[in-house]
Structure formats: structure tokens, C-alpha cells
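=== Given protein ===
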Amino acid sequence: MNIEAIILAQKKFFFTNKTKSVTFRISQLKKLKKVLKENETILYNAIYKDLGKSEFETYTTELSLIYHEINLALKKVKKWSKRKRVRTNFANFPAKSFILPEPLGNTLIIAPWNYPIQLVFSPAVASICAGNTVIIKPSEVTSNCSKVIAKIINENFDTNFLHVIEGDIKETTELLNTKFDKIFFTGSTNVGRIVYQAAAKNLTPVILELGGKSPTFILKDCNLKMTAKRLVWSKFLNAGQTCVAPDYILVAKEIETEFLSAIKLEIEKNYPKNNIAENYNKIINLSHFNRLTELIPKENIFFGGQFNKEKRFISPTILTNISFNDKIMESEIFGPILPVITFDNLDKVIAEIKHRAKPLACYIYSSNKKNVNKILHELSFGSGAINESVMQLSNSNLPFGGVGNSGMGSYHGEFGFKAFSHFKSILSKPTWLELNTKYAPYSKKKLGLLKRLLE
């Protein structure tokens, strides 16, 4: 089947109303979990070929999050899908009012390469849970994962309901030129603009999960040892190729030396030279490798800076004496390079960030509630954490999404169900009583009564 035929088949299937059955949704979610469990080894092998990602990290950062989303959806989908009674205003007395969640219809998920399993299936779970049909377009950059995901899904699910389409720009463009009821895209801000423009032609709503330069504040009253431990893990996870990774550090000048020493010690502890391949990924391809190595000014290297082009390896690298005007501060790094900027005036550094694009994440390491609340109150960003980084993604009770240039819309847990649903407002009124106040002929007496009743 070609792309047009697959989309048409999914539209026809959606019109049968089968996906609106909660029982059907539950059966498909259970099937998806079963299929993923049965093919875990194949997925582990595929992602290792693409990114050099270990089984441990693949489970913790990819599969476990998908299983959690499926389990939560299975537990809550009946509740989320129920009509919800709301209060009725006096103007509609006597009547009942309720909100009826319904699926949007045919959905498209365009996934990135950096978490090529999780960022395919997490939004797919949300869409299935809401009762939609789903077309998935994996990233061609992680070709091994793309092939395995296509095989797993297309051999086990009805094309009319859930299907994977592989390809590159040609196939993606063809998909974007088609009318969907919702498009979910994860990727760069530049490509996000292209997706948004294409969707606008069909008035298709979108969720854009993009990126940006996520700042991390290290204040003088933080727990330095724990800060270094959590920061090194979150920054160099997936070799820095994480959309919510700390992009750069803002450290109070008076603790710069102690902070750098703590970071260096923690990197040496976590990434010793003799077994670094055990828990450290490759850069995705040579294009990104070249881009990243060109960002490293040798004179600013405090630690690291080693790289191997053949193995697509860049060691965890810390840069110092960096300012907001340096090249590395122009765009999201998306790699294992961590620039450190010192500051001695919190207000000034907050003002600097305010004049930049709103980041996807922001992290604050401090025990001073006043300063923490100041940053939370004054800066706009998608999500964040206090004395932690990245882990906010693991809590399905928190919506995940960006703001401004870092994205629009959010998902995870019930927020994902809502993202792929329309909430239909219904007023149900009996016929045994009708007040004539709103009907002609109009009069000053009726107007006076309405003013007293409606305001």
C-alpha cells in the first residue's frame, strides 16, 4: 500500500467507531506491551547499532518509560474516557451539562533519532489511549531502530489502525501534505517550523516537542557533591543528546573553583577510560560529530576534549571562561559539551536569559528558597527541577512540553490522553419547562430581570 492508501484506510477505519470503544483501546495497548516485551532483545540490538546504547540505559531511558505509560493508560483509560458532569448556570435552568471526551481521529507521530524507541511509542500510547488511529514516522537517522520498529508494528497490527511508514524527507513531506486530525512532532526548532507551516495549510493542530538552550543555576548554597553527581549523570546521559539536558551552567563566581573540582571528580568516577564504552553512547553520525567538535575552543577546555572520529566518540567535556557572546552559546549543543559561565549578580543573569528564546528546561541547584522561587517566578521555560535534572520526565503526573521556541502542547499520562482528545461540551435540557424571559417581545421589565439573574 502507498502512503495515500494507508491514510485513506485509516480514515475509513476510524469512521467505523471501533477505536471509540474503551475495550478496543485496552486490547490494543495490552497487545503493544506484549509485542514490545517479546521483541526487547531485537530492540536492544538495533539501538546499540545506531547509538552504542547499552541494554541498561535502553531499558531505563526508553522501554521502562513506555511500559509505565502503557500501564498507567490501562489503569486509567476508563476513568479518563468517561463523560464528566459539570455545574449548569442559572440561565439554562433546568438542565444538565457534561463534557464528553472523544478521539480526534487520524494522527501522525514524527519521531526523532535521539531516543528512537521511547519518542515513538510514548506519544503513540497516548494517541491509542484516546481512541485514535496512528501513523508513525520513525527517524531515518537511526535506521536500525526504524527497521525494527516497522517490522514489529506492521507485522502485528492492522494497517488500518496502527502503521509505521519508513523513509526520509520525501516520505515525511508527503505525510505532512496530507490532512490529519493531529500531528505530533519531536525534533529541532527549525524543522518544527516546517511542520507547523505544513499543518497550518490543513488547519491541523500540532504538538511540537522541540528544544533550546536549557540553563542550570548553581548557587553558592547548593550541596556541591550531590549537585555534581546529578548534573554529570543528566548532562552526559545519551552522550548529551537529550532535549532536556542541561545545556550550560551558570555558577556563582565564589564557588566556581569548588564546583569545577567536584564536576571533574564525578566525571572521572563515572567515565573511567578503561570502560567508558560500557555506559557512554556514540554521537549519532559524522555530521553531528563534526558540528560538535567545531564548537570546542581548545583554549577553553577545563576537562575532556578528547575525540575519535572513527568511533564517533567525544569525551565528556567542560569549558570555562565562557560568556553569553561565545559561539557555543548561539544554539542548542545537543552533545557532551558543558560550557560554564560564572556570575556574581543573579538579577543580571536572569535578565540575560529573559532576552533569549524560552528554553525547554531549567534547573536550579540551591537550598535558598527565596532565590529558587525568584528564578521560577521570573523565567519562562517548559519544565524543570530543583536540585535535580532531567528526572521530571519520569513523573507522568507532570505535563511534559515546551513554551515559545521550545515547543507547544504537552503530554505524558493524562496530559497525553487530553492532547489527543477533543472535549465536547453538551447541554441537555428537558422540555417540560421553559421560561419566556429570553424570548420576544422584549421589554424593560425582562431586561431588568435578566440583569439581576445573569450578572
In short: The two ends are 59 Å apart (CA to CA). The chain is about 40% helix and 15% strand.
